[in-house]
Amino acid sequence: MAGPSLSLVIATFNHGRYLGAALDSVLAQTRPTEIIVVDDGSTDDTPAVLARFAPRVRVHRQDNRGLSAARNAGLELARGEYIGFLDADDVIAPTKLAKQAAVLDADPQVGWTYCDVRIDDEVTGQSRLASERFRYEYSEQELKEWVPKIQGVSEQARETHVLMNNCYRDFAVNNARQLTDLLEE
């Protein structure tokens, strides 16, 4: 069973040198995914890179309005029940979206997921996980205390099932403290 459809939005501005690798990684997903790229007024070779991926990728070009506006434009175009975002200079593992969607498929109460991120330093060649760098570890007690706080945060989040890409743990619950802190500010 394939499950609900997936859409992945990539907003880009002058990231032509990375964009091909990002798109290749999304095209290699084990679960079919609608790919939407919003070119936010690039002046580099981004249009030429995107042309190589036609018609497998939906492209929306707009004047430069910033990352948030580009992501919102992609969100408006997305047709999938589950929607994710990928930075134009990032790549994802072939099973990433399938594994995240499986979590959402298994429990309708889960509204979004995320995972750890490996950070590769182009200058030093070093590689590490974001969870190691930023020390995202929470106790069972901490989870029990603040998970109820986020359960009612947004019905729309449950209905939209947004897959978050830039994340640091296997499930959103493990980083819910930061979400709660942001909502309380």
Please tell me about this protein's structure.
The longest helix is centred in the N-terminal third of the chain and has 12 residues, at 16-27. This protein is an alpha/beta fold and 185 residues long. Helices cover 39% and strands 19% of the residues. It contains 8 helices and 8 strands. The chain is globular, with a radius of gyration of 17 Å.
Topology, element by element:
Layout: E1 6-12, H1 16-27, E2 33-40, H2 46-52, E3 58-62, H3 67-77, E4 82-87, H4 96-106, E5 112-113, E6 118-120, E7 127-129, H5 130-134, H6 140-151, H7 155-160, E8 162-163, H8 176-184
Parallel strand pairs: 1-2, 1-4, 2-3, 4-8, 5-8
Antiparallel strand pairs: 6-7
Helix pairs in contact: 1-2, 6-8
* Rounded mean pLDDT score: 78
Unreliable runs, pLDDT <50, ≥5 residues? 152-185
Major sheet description: 6 strands, parallel
CATH architecture annotation of the largest domain: Alpha-Beta Complex
Instruction: Using the coordinates above, name the CATH class of the largest domain.
Output: Alpha Beta
Q: Domains counted in the coordinates: how many?
A: 2
Task: Determine the CATH topology of the largest domain.
Answer: Spore Coat Polysaccharide Biosynthesis Protein SpsA, Chain A
How do the strands of the widest beta sheet line up side by side?
Answer: 3-2-1-4-8-5
Provide the gyration radius in Å. Answer: 17 Å
Task: Work out the strand percent.
Answer: 15-25%
Give a brief description.
The protein is built from eight helices and eight strands; from the N terminus they run βαβαβαβαβββαααβα.
